[in-house]
Amino acid sequence: MDAEITLRVDGEQHQLTVDTRTTLLDLMRERLGNTSPKKGCDHGQCGACTVLLDGERSLSCLALAVAHDGAEVTTADGLARDGELHPVQRAFLERDAFQCGYCTPGQICSAVGVLQEVDRGWPSHVTEDLTGDVELSRDEVSERMSGNLCRCGAYEHITPAVQDAGSAR
Amino acid sequence: MTDLLEPRAIGQALVRRDGEQKVRGTATYAYETPVEHPAFAHPVQATVARGRVTAMDTAAAEALDGVLVVLTPFDAERLASTDDAEFAVLQSPDVAFRGQLIGVVVAETSELARQAADSITVTYDEQPHDSELRSDRPDLYKPEKINPSYETDTEEGDVEAALRSAAVTVDHVYETQMLHNNPIEPHATTALWDPAADVPLTLWDSTQGVHPDRAAVSEVFGLEEEQVRVVCPYVGGGFGSKGTPHANVMLVTMAARALPGRPVKLALTRQQMFFLAGYRTPTIQRMQLGADRSGRLQAIALDVVEQTSKIKEFAEQTGVPTRMTYASPTRRTTHRLAALDVPIPSWMRAPGECPGMFGPEVALDELAEELGIDPVQLRIINEPDVDPETKQPWSSRHLVECLREGAQRFGWADRGPGRRREGDWFVGYGVASSVYPTMRQAQSTAAIRFEDGRYVTEIGAADLGTGAWTVLPQIAADALGVDVDDVEVRIGDTRYPIASVAGGSSGTNTWGSAITVAAREFRSKFGTDPQPGDEATGDVDQASSDEEHSAYAFGAQFAEVRVNADTGEIRLPRLLGVFAAGRIINPRTARSQLIGGMTMGMSMALHENSVFDTRIGQVANHDLAEYHITVNADVGSIEAHWLDEHDPYVNAMGSKGIGEIGITGTAAAVVNAVHHATGVRVRSLPVTLDKLLPGLP
Predict the structure, then answer these.
(1) Is the peptide bond before B686 cis (omega within 30 degrees of 0)?
(2) Torsion over CA: B642, B643, B648, B652 (sign)
(3) Measured at the alpha carbon of residue B271, what is the angle toward residues B505 and A48, in degrees to the nearest 5?
(4) Closest CB to B110 among A26, A77, A99
(5) Is-contact A81 A158, C-beta < 8 A?
(6) Which pTM value belongs to this model?
(7) How confident is the model at residue B201 (pLDDT cuts 50, 70, 90)?
(8) Can you name the residues that pair with B564 across neighbouring β-strands?
(9) pLDDT for residue B10
(10) Tens digit of pLDDT for each residue in B359-374?
(11) Which of B113, B123, B122, B124 lies closest to B61, judged by CA?
């Protein structure tokens, strides 16, 4: 069964007829040619497909495209504006916070989401003071980034990269 | 002796050349290759663990609008070579393990391909299967060799007599678990068969070596190598599982050949990877040590039992590091295999050394305790002057220095012999050695051409995240005596000169040697003022080589473990490694490789475990929700340091290879720290709290 939707991806508007079984991830990768979000598990278990969906970090492999008519999607590629890398991307480069690069776009979208959530004062499992501002400590970042698996084992560099980008805001 | 390159670009912590594409997500991995009008393939897998497919009803699949090809063992093309049973896809209705490929569907969309594959009904003549690894199986056998071509068994001196007369002995069985490589990029291919083209078959394949991949595919399909092009600029992790092609590559090639002119894409699902993409065999290691009162080893014996599949043998060389790490007048290593109705095991990061540095390094800790000698000191006491196996001198060996520097950096002196409790947590420190052989492959060629004022260096190498895109220009720059910005390196395509697999931590050593020879040729032919188009090539076999020395990288890893006194929860706040791995070409990418290896070692120690259900013959936890790998919040501080090691014997770069040593010894260091914290000795990986709770003080 097909459905008509509109979708804005990295600033570009699309009018689409989609199979109602199609995920946002497959739509981007297999129909729109936007392969910045990656498929690692297709089950919401690895985080490689993380994008910003209407501004919030979200697993695009668990989102059916038909359920997001009118949505705005930003991928890691879309975070780089006018050829300028996003501060989180620059921090990942500087810290060498990746190796193979396959989980990286998801890590970066997730990190952008983390920084927004911290700015709003959203607590996490490891937040000790639930009343004040959230401090961007190592534990806070590690906890919040744990939905994004990295098999190359770059966590030791990912966490400080997110902290760097956060403190540069 | 080799004249080492004068390091100018070498040693610089340059940012990855492919970094910007990777942080944007625009680096194109195999499945992502932009092609016109692709079709999508989905495999059909056997749902019995052994037997024979008697019928496949594909009518419902074929009736779906948009289904383009359905292939089964009854109608697929006959392959030119079926010598390798793993590659002989759809050649017979026999099922050798659950999950084996028995069909494929190609359709206009990926959703449709999956729906069609699911609609195929398969009838089997199911046979009983046998998939349980036990060390008391009567049918264990001795393989002719172990991976890749080591002696299966070795023996020196009278081990039994030495054990009988030793003042102190240790005799235990240690077990490492079944592990799956699980790179985050699934095994994936875009395949195009265009019979009229000069190069009819193109595979954009996720592989650790485009040339070895091409060699395998051309043999299976009876093509000349020149008729096949393999392209792979980026690999989303491999860890050995993309070191050789697996059955999925043959299946997608077959599917593409059934649909000439249409590119066909196939990516294994995460679940399918647990059946088809290789894994590390579980190992059962009986380890015996005998020592005198001063701690000097008198006997070392390691008898290993592990599994292979019935249809294709892979014998993990688990006993190999025991042959050379420590001195002893007597020594034995043996390997026995159980051939089972199971998926085919293969390479996983540091095959041999990784499991092989578990049992022995834990046993040494047990011996240290028996003797009342510090575990660091016990290792130093047993330092050999020459390679105990070959009797050759070392090209360089600084294990003792790694142990000493690591102990100092870690604060090992604070350890104390007894248990320490801080609040609700028992705290313990553990140590283990790391080792990995320094290898160089026999075949690789580099071409250097002067083009638009730059030195273009081409070689069919692979960058799995290891940094080849960045590190090879550094080597070429120093070999040519030019600025690194004046060098462009192109890799990952069989259109470039032949390169060896990125495996055995040999990539940089091999390709860098070929590049060094090519640079020398280039300079001797064209001097320092070349003309556009001037080109020279160099082969690795022209690089100076050393047969007189035994070459290994060494390291020492230290772990701090905390175990909750009430729940048994295990935390690993600190892991510190010091390595001696020759000259480090790029400290930035090197550190990532070493901490990455250590993180995977931590994952092996505490998290990963493929739980094989022998009743049904499959891994029960075959996805990333149930197969746990270390996540960000599991990691405390992971530090990797290295010694400034000079080695004039290994190659012109003085480099030893760092992709695998980081995972060796880690699990033993963790287990030893857990014992120090709790008094509980875990001899079977992974360490989970159920193994600790009954023994907690």
Answers:
(1) yes
(2) positive
(3) 70
(4) A26
(5) no
(6) 0.98
(7) very high
(8) B425
(9) 98
(10) 999 999 999 999 999 9
(11) B113
pLDDT digits (tens, 9 = 90+) for A57-79: 999 999 999 999 999 999 999 99
Instruction: Select from B206, B269, B627, B632 the residue whose CB has the most chain A CBs within 10 Å, as the one to mutate to test that interface.
Output: B632
The one catalytic residue in B366, B560, B645, B660 is B660
Q: What tokens does B600 get? A: 């995977």
- CA-CA distance, B200 to B3, in Å (whole number)? 44
Question: Nearest-CA neighbor of B147 among B287, B272, B243?
Answer: B243
Q: How far apart are the first and last CA of chain A?
A: 45
Q: What is the pLDDT of residues B473-485, one digit of tens each?
A: 999 999 999 999 9
pLDDT of amino acid B209 = 98
Q: Which two tokens stand for residue A62?
A: 């668990």
Segment 164-203 of chain B within 8 Å of chain A by CB: 182-186
- A99/B464 touch (CB, cutoff 8 Å), yes or no: yes
Q: Decide if B395 contacts B645 (C-beta within 8 A).
A: no
Confirm if B570 and B447 have CB atoms less than 8 A apart.
Answer: no
Task: Quote the CA–CA distance of B392 and B9 in Å, as a whole number.
Answer: 33
CA distances from B153 to B164, B324, B335 (A): 21, 14, 6
H-run or E-run covering B354: helix B353-356
Query: pLDDT exceeding 70 applies to what percent of chain B?
Result: 100
> With contact defined as beta carbons under 8 Å apart, do B447 and B515 qualify?
no
As given in the structure block, the two tokens for residue B492 are 């990952």
DSSP string, A104-169: HHHHHHHHHHHHHHHHTT---TT-S-SSSPPP--HHHHHHHTTTS--TT--HHHHHHHHHHHHHT-
- Chain A interface disruption, residue of B20, B23, B270, B630, most A CBs within 10 A: B23
Q: What token pair was written down for B267?
A: 């990516």
Residue B619 Cα distances to A44, A149, B176, B274, B614, angstroms? 20, 21, 16, 7, 9
What is the Cα B465 distance to its own chain's centre?
13
Please check the confidence at residue B1 and state whether its pLDDT lies above 80.
no
